[in-house]
Design brief:
This protein is mainly beta. The protein has four helices and 28 strands. It is elongated, with a radius of gyration of 28 Å. The two termini are 21 Å apart.
Length: 371
């Protein structure tokens, strides 16, 4: 039987999770292999070069580039602070003196006697990489970062916005189809599971209450647009500064959270979790995630390996109309191409939904939920 390599969502209570934490450029790793780390602990640090501030001093002094060296008060490599004299004329009458002050604090990077430009570079920006999850340093990548291993619950969502954060899971609903109407002070510092729909009103209440994250089945596209202030095109999300992280587990609109997803979140209620809203929208290679370290002991799967593809009996979600959002099991994988409504001949699969309904859908229209 041919495999169908379909993007998969991982939803499991027992997983071995490995997360690489890398610097944007080479720096210093500050932990050793085998050491236990906390999610808010710095594991590597470096410095990003500061921004460049070019200055055309010869024009301001009315001199030629070749004369520039005689007017400079600083040389290449010198430190300067904002407002400090950088160059000046030396007239016989001091009242006619012209002084050029540095517009920034930093270092004199270059002085060109050809163009007459002086390049200043602002102070470097420190960058620290945090562990993100509680776990053990499984590997040290010299001068770049580490790989951290942890065990616990692992849930991937469909879509998210906002960066990495952590806090205790707080269940605000009793079942997967319920919808939270209000969030209060009890949500401060927590990741709140709000049920089938994340509304703009709930987001505002969560921010006011001090919640760090929201997890729900769906969100309306208009609410998402209002939350971000713009239409989200083809992009990688995760860098939005919206005051908290939002993760959608099922899709757009009001959609009940998948039963297994909700059951895991309910079982982990009150436990500390790490979440990230980062999503690669077009390719689907990056999913928002919920990690609850040490959630439970049991038979574990490894998060990070390649999937073998669709198999009969696999749980999946349909991600195109007319069955959008419905969850079922693969009941058949016909090898031959079949003609669909558009007239195209594509590979299909047979799906059995809860209740016994059997349908045929293109394989590109489903998403595997890895149990």
């Amino acid at each position: 039987m041919a495999h169908a390599y379909t993007p998969g969502l991982r939803v499991t209570r027992h997983a071995v999770i490995q997360k690489e934490r890398r610097l944007p450029l080479k720096g210093e790793v500050v932990v050793e292999r085998g050491v236990e780390v906390r999610r808010d602990q710095v594991v590597a640090r470096t410095e990003l070069p500061g921004d460049v501030a070019p200055m055309n001093i010869v024009n301001r002094l009315g001199i030629s580039p070749q004369e520039l060296a005689g007017y400079m008060l600083k040389k290449e490599g010198d430190q300067v602070v904002e407002g400090e004299p950088l160059a000046e004329t030396r007239p016989l009458i001091k009242w006619f003196k012209t002084t050029i002050e540095s517009p920034v604090s930093g270092t004199v990077e270059s002085i060109s006697l050809v163009t007459g430009q002086v390049i200043l570079r602002k102070a470097p920006k420190p960058v620290e990489v945090l562990a993100y999850v509680d776990g053990v340093v499984d590997e040290v990548i010299a001068e770049e970062g580490v790989r951290i291993e942890t065990r616990g619950a692992y849930i991937q969502g469909i879509f998210g916005v906002g960066g990495e954060c952590w806090g205790a899971l707080h269940l605000a609903v009793e079942d997967a189809n319920a919808e939270t109407k209000t969030i209060g002070a009890e949500a401060a510092g927590k990741i709140v599971v709000v049920g089938s729909l994340i509304t703009l009103k709930i987001v505002e209440q969560a921010r006011q209450a001090g919640a760090v994250g929201l997890i729900g089945g769906g969100i309306r596209d208009q609410d998402l647009r209002d939350l971000l202030g713009y239409d989200l095109g083809v992009a990688i999300t995760g860098a939005e500064e919206i005051g908290l992280t939002v993760i959608v587990t099922e899709g757009f609109g009001r959609i009940a959270m998948a039963g297994k997803t909700f059951d895991i979140l309910r079982a982990c209620s009150g436990m500390e979790a790490s979440i990230s809203g980062a999503t690669q929208i077009r390719a689907g290679v990056l999913r928002p995630e919920i990690i609850v370290p040490a959630a439970a002991a049991g038979e574990e799967e490894h998060v990070g390996g390649d999937s073998e593809g669709l198999q009969v009996g696999n749980v999946l979600r349909v991600i195109r109309m007319p069955y959008f959002g419905q969850i079922g099991r693969v009941s058949g994988l016909p090898a031959e191409l079949q003609e669909v409504e558009s007239g195209a001949r594509v590979r299909v699969l047979e799906v059995e939904f809860d209740g016994g309904q059997q349908v045929v859908v293109p394989r590109a229209n489903v998403e595997l939920i890895e149990e």
